[in-house]
């Protein structure tokens, strides 16, 4: 999946991954994809809820080597 921007939020505790994601999503255009990497387990439910409430679409999320990866399409 081709992301317009990649956000490294690894090692950050809640609420920083959301704060950084919010800032990063404002730097891309509608329809573009933001890829987020996080290690905070709470980010999974937080980012899904945040994307939905903000009118964005969580396209996919995976976990590899304890790093959660999310692809969010800007609404």
Automatic annotation (TrEMBL):
Residues 7-31 form the UPF0033 domain. It comes from the Bacteria. PANTHER family: SULFUR CARRIER PROTEIN YEDF-RELATED (PTHR33279). Belongs to the sulfur carrier protein TusA family. This is Sulfurtransferase TusA family protein.
């Amino acid at each position: 999946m081709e992301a317009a921007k990649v956000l490294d939020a690894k090692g950050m505790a809640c609420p920083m991954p959301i704060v950084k994601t919010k800032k990063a999503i404002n730097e891309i255009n509608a329809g573009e994809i933001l890829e987020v990497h996080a290690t905070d387990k709470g980010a999974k439910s937080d980012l899904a809820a945040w994307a939905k409430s903000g009118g964005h679409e969580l396209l996919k999320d995976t976990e590899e080597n304890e790093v959660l990866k999310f692809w969010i399409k800007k609404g």
